[in-house]
Predict the structure.
Amino acid sequence: MTTAFSGERAYAHLEALCEKIGPRHGGSSGEAKAARYIRDHFKELGLRTRLERYPIYSFEDAHATLTTPRGKQIPCVPLPMTASTSARGITAPCLFIEGSEAVDLDDRVRGKIVVMFGSFRNSVQEQFHAFKPLGLVAIQTAPYRQHQRYAYGADARRSRGSIPTVILTLEDGIQLIKRLPKTLTLKLKTEGEKLTHGYNVVADLKGSDPGDDVIAMCAHFDSVWGSAGAMDNGAGTAAMLEFARVYAQTGSPRNMRFLAFGGEEMGLWGAKAYVKKLKNEDESLKRNKDFERDGLKSKLDCTRFLVNLDMMGQLYGKSNAITLGHADIAASARLLANELRYALAVEENSVYSSDNMAFNYAGVPSISFNRIGFESSGGHTSADTIDNCCAEGLAHIGGIVEAWMDRYVMSPHVFPFPRELPEAATDAVKKWFKEKNPLDYEAFTPQKRYRPKAKKGKK
Ligand SMILES: [Zn+2]
């Protein structure tokens, strides 16, 4: 493969995002800095560039401690945006239960600090609410992993409140339950929690062919909180910035739109806000019956296809392409990889939990490329640092993405893939949104107006 894509140049962007800027969770000052960095790069390339604000319920930082009656501190990280405790914390009897299955949940948990295995994300918190524990201690089930750095869903928090929650590694958790003390003291504080906004960066490259259709390439540039987010997804962003340079210099027959999305890790906030705007415009135009009869297309109709870059940059690992759309998309990736002797696992019409989902929901097909480095990539933890990434790793995945773009986007006289999703894929996308966070899904569906409310008074 001869490539214009430079792993070295992409790596320089990765250094800027992970080392100079650092953690960038949705709505944080780090994310805003990264947005400006990306905007400046697009502008330097001469692309028509803008920042788009989206609302997000977020926070700046969070701290927690978990202490035994003898004063021993157990290493933990908070689940931000669950309820903060008073400065003295909560001291309560503790209870170990196996998990959040119905069989484990009864009145015993009331007034206790509950220690259990598993995740305490949205749906589990909901199950616990009826039984009113005072605090939750979640033990991760994967061995030798840094603490997961999720944040609690803002919509869930607003509608049903939350229980202060901390996360333990499996190793620390086992030691805790082996000698479970009578009581524990849990302190948790989420700083600067508020309705704020984040940014998407949008950059357009006009194609030489006539027509309004647009091929979009996207990557999310936010990280989970307290993580440099190198593999996930400083690297995908760095690769997209490098692709923008390549096509800005060589030119493109098709209109290209580069989309750097914020707020992905906290629930696709940036991508959903972007798609929702297109969907609203589409619906208001089509309320006028003449619009379609006159052969006009909305901006959403013109969004033909999405190429998503999420998780990459490591030297070793397994490269994947996940498609949602016509069977030809998966076939195209399979055939090309074979021809180039590139090991690429292709998953056809498979749900990939990333920004593509918002587009798929609105009927736009997609291909997502990633490269995952086995168990050690440290995704969603503070171990996801630039140490695991390198220019060669970026060039490796960049090469196959560029070859695919050349063959199917830049070369064909007519763009080869129809703008449609098979019914089963559409259903799978809807199901994913509903299960992931039902409240959030309702807010995203176009029938309902979503107006995030600012928090009033003190809780
Ligand atoms: Zn990601």
User: Anything to note?
Assistant: The radius of gyration is 23 Å. Residues 28 and 420 are 36 Å apart (CA to CA). The chain has a mean pLDDT of 91. Residues 220, 232-233, 264, 310-311, 354 surround zinc ion (CB under 6 Å).
